[in-house]
Amino acid sequence: MDHEFPHNDGTNACVFLALKICDIFKRNESPDDRVPSWEELERITEEMIKTLPAKINSVRNSSEKYDPIIAKTILTSNNLLEGNYELSEECVSNYGVFTELGRKELINALANEKLTRTKKSVGLYTCAPYTFLVGIYNGSFFIVDTHPIGEELGGNGNAILVRTRDKDLRSCRLIIQWIIKRLKNSGVSEEAAQSFAWLTEVPVEGCSEKQSNQADVDFSNSAHRARDARSNIHTSDMLEV
Fold it and tell me: How many whole angstroms separate alpha carbon 9 and alpha carbon 232?
């Protein structure tokens, strides 16, 4: 590429970070089907914030904002995603992010009965210029936002993990209230559109069990490396917004 960037410049990297965190989180399971803890998710996030920009800055323009599909293509073509994924867009009506219809559409997407029954599901929420991870895990809705989040949103100036006490409809509404407040505080336009897409892993022909197991080992090692770092990820247990 014609542009050169600082080695670890994370400007406009949020969509890449969200995709890679989804990738590790979805595939980081041990043979006994143990899923990562919240603490491991924090460590994965911390590790990716520290290390991923250096891996992508030679193949992207840090002054450009990428949509999730293009970012996924860049990560995949550079062997930076271990899984093969498709994004299924749920917000197709182009309702504004702050409208009642837009809010209802997002509730319907997150409260999908089939997905709320699963152990964990993750997706990408985008309202330009922001993208962050939204998911269902361990009986809760949760958000991982890799941008600096202040006290007014329950943060401490670093990235944040926000989680609800359960995954009932009230909790779904609470997590959406947090999203709306977060976007309003960031000065997002009243006319801004939103996007939410679930990330689903699809099989790759010719991928052997050995390769799949090796990927799990690599993810586990990444989590262990992050465990050695002092985490700056703040966790907020959501009761009210």
Answer: 17
Instruction: Please tell me the CATH code under which domain 13-201 is placed.
Output: 3.90.70
Q: For the chain, which residues make up each domain, given as ranges?
A: 13-201
Put the strands of the sheet holding 158-164 in their side by side order: 85-89, 195-201, 120-127, 130-137, 140-149, 158-164, 234-238
Give the tens place of pLDDT for each residue, 27-56: 875 444 555 689 989 999 999 999 999 999
**pTM confidence score:** 0.83
- Phi/psi of residue 144, nearest 5 degrees: -115, 115
From CA 57, how far away is CA 166, in angstroms rounded? 38
Q: Could you give the CA distance from residue 97 to residue 241 in angstroms, rounded to a whole number?
A: 17
User: Any idea what the Cα angle at residue 219 is, between residues 205 and 137, rounded to 5°?
Assistant: 90
